[in-house]
Write a structure and sequence with these properties.
Elements (H helix, E strand, L loop, with lengths): L15 E4 L7 E4 L14 H13 L7 H8 L1 H4 L4 E4 L3 E5 H20 L13 E4 L75 E2 L6 E2 L1 H15 L1 H13 L3 E4 L6 H9 L3 E4 L2 E4 L1 E4 L13 E4 L2 H8 L4 E4 L3 E7 L8 H15 L5 E5 L8 H9 L8 E3 L4 H9 L4 H13 L17 E6 L6 E3 L7 E3 L3 H10 L18 E5 L2 E5 L4 E7 L8 H15 L9 E5 L3 H9 L3 H6 L21 H9 L5 E4 L15 E4 L2 H10 L12 E2 L5 E2 L1 H4 L3 H26 L2 H5 L36 E9 L6 H4 L10 H8 L17 H6 L8 E2 L4 E2 L2 E4 L4 E4 H10 L4 E4 L12 H9 L1 E6 L4 H9 L3 E5 L15 E4 L10 E6 L4 E6 L4 H9 L2 H14 L2 H13 L3
Parallel strand pairs: 4-5, 4-11, 5-8, 11-12, 14-15, 14-17, 15-16, 22-23, 22-24, 24-25, 28-33, 33-34, 34-35
Antiparallel strand pairs: 1-2, 3-13, 6-7, 9-10, 18-19, 20-21, 26-27, 28-36, 29-30, 31-32, 35-38, 36-37, 37-38
Helix pairs in contact: 1-2, 4-8, 4-29, 8-27, 9-10, 14-18, 14-20, 26-27, 28-29, 29-30
Length: about 1000
Amino acid sequence: MALTSSQQAHPFNHLIDTLQTEKNKAQKYFNPQKLGDPKYERLPFSIRVLLEAAIRKCDGFYVKQEDVQNILNWEKQQNEAEIPFSPARVLLQDFTGIPALVDLAAMRDAVAKNGIDPNLINPKCPTDLIVDHSLQIDFSKCAIQNAPNPGGGDGHGATPRSVPGRLSSRSSQCGGSRGGCSKGSCSDAPSSSSKAPVVQIENTPLLCPFHLQPVSEQETALKNQEMELIRNKERLQFFKWCSKAFKNVSVVPPDIGSVHQVNLEYLSRVVQESEGFVFPDSVVGTDSHTTMINGLGILGWGVGGIESEAVMLGQPVSLTLPQVVGCKLVGSISTLATSIDIVLGITKHLRQAGISGKFVEFFGPGVSQLSAADRTTIANMCPEYNATVSFFPVDDTTLKHFKQTNFAEEKLEVMESYLKAVKLFRSSDDQAEDPHYSEVIEVNLNSIMPSVSGPKRPQDRVPVTCMKEDFLSCLNEKVGFKGFHIPREKQDILVPFQHEGTEYTLSHGSVVIAAVISCTNNCNPSVMLTAGLLAKKAKEAGLTVKPYIRTSLAPGSGMVTHYLNASGVLPYLSQLGFEVIGYGCATCVGNTAPLPESVVDAIKEGDLVACGVLSGSRHFEGRLCDCVRANYLASPPLVVAYAIAGTVGIDFEKEPLGLNAEGKEVFLKDVWPSKEEVQDVEEHTVVASIFRDLRSRIQKGSPFWNNMDVPDSVLFPWDPKSTYIRCPPFFSKLSKEVSVPGSIDNAHALLFLGNKVTTDHISPAGSIARISAAAKYLQSKRLTPREFNSYGARRGNDAVMTRGTFASIKLQNRLIGKTGPKTLHVPSGQMLDVFEAAERYQRDGFPLIILAGKEYGSGSSRDWAAKGPYLLGVRAVIAESFEKMHKNHLVGMGIAPLQFLPGQNADSLELSGKERFSISLPEELTPQQELTVLTSTGKSFSVVTLFENEMDVAFYRHGGLLKYVARTEGAERAGCAETIENAAELRIVFPV
């Protein structure tokens, strides 16, 4: 309902309030507190967002007053009532976005043919599309020359190009033997400095992971980007046309950032402003990790392609009023615990709690200890513990985050004032604000302890507090996954050796390799900043790293170096020996520099279990060096700490890291930065810098995108030669009048499927097989296999996607008795491609159905898993049960989802799949109606229609959501007589 035009008729007009702020003009908002119902303040914050949307969007048609009451009575109606939700915006990535926008373009053509202004067809809900799924790795960042090949094969690679102004060569490591450190292979004399050689880091060179020879990152990235633009030019031109032709559509061009990065750092608003009203930001997106935005107090989750199209076109999302699990965080985070420890610890608790399909909302005193980055990372893990939402209400930490992201002061003032006015602002210290939850799970942050993994396998975790004890037990154990079987009389041995004129000693547990690698720590910069701040404090306290330890710093990207340098900690890391050696895999794959000869000799002399500590992801025995038997994975700051200590056999709580210049003991707790210190640097240095950079790149765009010519037209000029973009036939038979769907007579079963048929079986997203029906089509267009691209990239071409329907090589079709994308054409008895068989059936005038077992359509949401069967001629799917989202997609395409009665299935009814099926459909369909199916063998059985409400029935009567919108849009906006008549018919179906 348009707020400004329909304000007087709005059923909740009496809830409208005026928001007064110092720097802004008065703005209106719906205030649920004016309902005067004490139940409001007991609602979880996420449910309050659902309630506000229902109040604001209540029109008596899509959203009714009883929906508002059901949400307000959440404690009694949870898991029972079906409610609508109208989010503030839609988020698309290009793979799932292109079919939605192609449908809109085709809808414009259809209404224009019926004499209606095509300019009227636009998304009603603001829609952002981010082009981030098109990049393919055609050029590797590594160039391998005469390198050992741990991955197998012939072991030869391309010669790296010489890049002006960069280091062009480096001596072969270990005599060409990967990871070798024996005296024979490490025969080169140590250099004057035993630290890893310093590589010039200007322009952030990439290194070959085997010889550490620099390769041009810019050249590699530019080549991949160039291929992306060339390969996807047609799609990109279409996207740019959409951004100009449609209202409410914004396109972020390629090479800007991932969909979630852009959503977090550019699109998020927390509070939206439109038509003089303010209201909570909310979003549905075509990706399961859309939940990441929940960490900023913005309600959002992932939906399927057809569901997102429905929201774009003004339809609400339908969901069962969810149960909300309160996750209460108590206790204090260990001083040594990093953000990654916290995120994984909380994820582990939630995974064990069994919260599938529920909302999770965080509260309690422990929440204030989590930064905005921590919260978004926890919310991003939502699919890992199967929750629908992981919601953090807005609090002071959230406001502080937005202040650092260049939010205008005026917007911040509106945000805070509005959220407090409608009680959507959370004070973690006030327990009186705690809502009622379906259940409460308590997570004690004290229980989340930092740990390392080792000494031989990544799955063997060891709490840091137990590290010394655990290492000693490993010395005693028999040789195996953890043990080294060192005789007790040899466990205390000390081996002296000379290095650069100074005498040192080695023992069991001595650290000889320490590598900080950020490739696995880029999603949350706090761990790298913690390492840098630790190095700074350690250096200022007078601590050093022994010069024989092979230390190195290999950031995962130039951005890491940038923020370490900008925060002022990079020089301190360098002074401790952690110098940037380049950008690529190094220590993880055994490419550490040779150990000093004297160290190797000492290890061999005492048969010592020397140690390597690294922050990578792999550390099998002997992988780093054949003379280093114990290897531990640790967080970056712990790598620095163990390097300073010089041994893993240390109890950080009781033993000092070392002595300062005055001989005073310095403990780890003395130099470990507080979480507040890290968060402050992160917000002021990293976050602000990233946000400025992203905004700048979006505003500037790329030269390719800016210079791309697209037609300035209302209707898209379809290119008949295009193999990427085609006008789909969904509207080819669109009439102004609604023709009631007739009964399904003498239908053949296209497929007879079993249990758990996924959307990947129905509509594959990967590469296009050379012998598939889609490949034959593309070859007919004179494309070579190298030019096929993927099904995902060609989702804007119905001819490819229809041929790709049921093209999975893992499809198990009981009509043919074997795995593969084939089926039986029953009239001829021939085994054909599914597409070819469907084409024959349609040519001969036979409707089609699909027989299936339990959980039909499970897995990833995928619009073409419903669109494809529709275009193949499928009228109904009869199954034991359906995945809910896919069932909604079938209804949205005008395919009837029919369910066997409880206790019945195709086997119990002795169906072969070769029968013909007739299903009588009454003119006045109702939700959950029981229908009778007659077979050509004389059998009959009953099924239930899985239409959940009258809206589902209306979609089916119209032949699907798209046709429904095309007709009703004309009735609502054009006012032509015939369409108004159809709208009246709809009002009969939906009594207002």
